[in-house]
Amino acid sequence: MTQSDVDVVTLRDRVASLPGWGTGDIVIEPAIPVLASPSWRGVDGAPWRAVNKANGESIFIKVMHGDAELYIDVPCAFEAAQRASDLGIGPRVIMADVQAGLLVMEDLNQGWRVGTLERMLEPAIVDAVIAARRLFQTGTPLPSRKSVFDEIEHFYAAVLSAKAQLPVDAQWLVEELRFAAAAFRTLKVTPAPIHGDGNVSNILISDTGEVRLIDWDRATTADPLQDLGSFLVEAFDQEPEARDAFVRYTDGLDEAAFNRARIYGVADDLRWGLIGALLAAKSARNTLEFYKFASWRFVRCRMAVREPRFGEMLRRIS
Predict the structure, then answer these.
(1) Those residues with Cβ within 8 angstroms of residue 142's Cβ, 6 or more apart along the chain or in another chain
(2) What is the pTM assigned to this prediction?
(3) Which of 255, 269, 271 is CA-nearest to residue 313?
């Protein structure tokens, strides 16, 4: 499904059924550009904005794509978005219709900007993002309980079944992360609900420095360090900056925990590379650069696994 595939008349009727939206001229328009590469923005669901021309009020609408079922647990994602709304760390959810794949939220448009790598250079912003993630982790478990290592196995099997294009060393990368997964299984971990996707474009930042987390499509119940690792690998190109953020997060340096977070970040790259490859093979949305996105995530994973310190990190996770 593309934005042009959405029945705008039906969407307008759904909006008109919301409290306060039954009268007036409602305009439905695309909310943001959709990009698979470089930032995977607006890919999981068609992003729309509904505007009431009578009073200027607007809401944001996410219509899940038909191929979302290939890689997203939609009921779990919608539950996580609702929880984030209730906690004040995500946009306020106005309506969540799992069967229709329709999520309606407040429109954080004026006075808000999408997170960028440049903003991740600001410690206050980074700390606010991590604090929001930690607050979400205080809740009860989500229905999904898949770790990033579980998803690597799932998506690797899926891409092989789909005969998707893969780099020549894909099997080697999977085997290396299987070795890491086996080491992680020996650790005592207390799972918690997590956002699960560290992409900085999943962060909205207000003009006053408030943050909101969006796109809860990888939400699951897993090791909280998995959540942090997915964020650190996306937010920081270099280890020193990631280490500084981690030290502020833990109020001191736990070397073993930092190593676990970093390895989770490497695994996150492989997972997303496999998701991109799967969609490149199976999605009807062939104008989106799924494999270009996948290639970048494979490259970054490969660089980390080939780094001599990868084995040293894995040796020091406990």
Answers:
(1) 76, 79, 80, 193, 219, 220, 221
(2) 0.94
(3) 255
Cα separation, 65 vs 12, in Å, equals 18
Q: Residue 1 pLDDT more than 50? A: no
CA angle 91, 88, 262 (to 5 degrees): 85
Instruction: Say how far apart CA 44 and CA 22 lie, in whole Å.
Output: 28
Nearest to 152 by CA among 24, 277, 293: 277
How far apart (Å, rounded) are the C-alpha atoms in residues 93 and 72? 19
Percent of the chain with pLDDT over 70: 98
Cα(120)–Cα(133) distance, integer angstroms: 15
Measured distance CA(223)–CA(136) in Å, rounded:
13
3-state secondary structure of 192: strand
Q: Report the C-alpha gap between 202 and 186 in whole angstroms.
A: 32
Query: Residue 80 is encoded by which pair of tokens?
Result: 């996580």
**3 state SS of 37:** coil
Q: What angle do CA 184, 223, 154 make, to 5 degrees?
A: 70
With H, G, I as helix, E, B as strand and everything else as coil, classify residue 282. helix
For residue 117, what are its two tokens? Answer: 């790598």
